[in-house]
Amino acid sequence: MSWIYLMLAGLFEIGFALGLKHTDGFTRLWPSLGTAAAAAVSLYLLTQALRTIPVGTAYAVWTGIGACGVALIGVVLLGESASPVRLACVGLIVAGVVGLKLASPG
């Protein structure tokens, strides 16, 4: 169950990071509230995952999911660069996250 919490925490981390773009420096109320809510849910789920997953592994996976998710959404929805080097680097992060899962006990 901890890995499910961690994956969900990573998804909310994506929402948090994307929300920051729309807060305009936290001057827009609704985007700011949504961003804060996504951050709170993400951190709560991360704390639940930390009950059984080592902190180094959990944090690396959590930030990896967030980084890859935001980068891919940036390419698909926001028109950011999809250069082969950039996509390869995202692939390396994914490989690292998968490797951490495979190397983790339980």
From TrEMBL:
It is a multi-pass membrane protein. One of its GO terms (biological process) is xenobiotic detoxification by transmembrane export across the plasma membrane. The chain crosses the membrane at residues 29-47, 59-79, 85-103. One of its GO terms (cellular component) is plasma membrane. SUPFAM superfamilies: Multidrug resistance efflux transporter EmrE. GO terms for molecular function: transmembrane transporter activity. This is Guanidinium exporter.
